[in-house]
Specification:
Elements (H helix, E strand, L loop, with lengths): L1 E5 L2 E4 L4 E8 L8 E6 L6 E6 L6 E3 L7 E6 L4 E6 L8 E7 L4 E2 L3 E6 L1
Parallel strand pairs: 2-11
Antiparallel strand pairs: 1-3, 3-8, 4-5, 4-9, 5-6, 7-8, 9-10, 9-11
């Protein structure tokens, strides 16, 4: 299994970004997928999860109502739409496939206030 994130960058507070995670090496449509974020010195934080068909999603409290997880099973891509970003959202963002215990390399998001 391999995961490659993209879409991070520098954004002003209140702005939006969409992250992508390209999956390969496994049957993407069969697997639950997650987004996490991490900052140095802290454990990675689970942000959101999505079922294999995309019909069930769940979110951590800090991002609920601002972030949306989605997937395109035809293209093997996982997304995270992030709106109303704040400086507290500054972190490296990772996608993760639990069944294979595989992480992407992460993409950095920096929110300037």
């Amino acid at each position: 299994a391999q995961l490659v994130e993209s879409g991070g960058g520098l954004v002003q507070a209140g702005g939006s970004l969409r992250l992508s995670c390209a999956a390969s090496g496994f049957t993407f449509r069969d697997e639950t997928m997650n987004w996490y974020r991490g900052v140095p010195g802290k454990d990675r934080e689970l942000l959101a999860g999505i079922s294999p068909a995309g019909d069930t999603t769940n979110y951590a409290t800090p991002v609920k109502g601002r972030f949306t997880i989605s997937r395109d099973n035809a293209r093997n891509v996982l997304y995270l739409q992030m709106n109303r970003l704040t400086s507290d959202d500054t972190a490296k963002y990772y996608c993760y496939v639990p069944y294979y215990n595989t992480w992407g390399q992460g993409t950095q998001v920096t929110v300037s206030s």
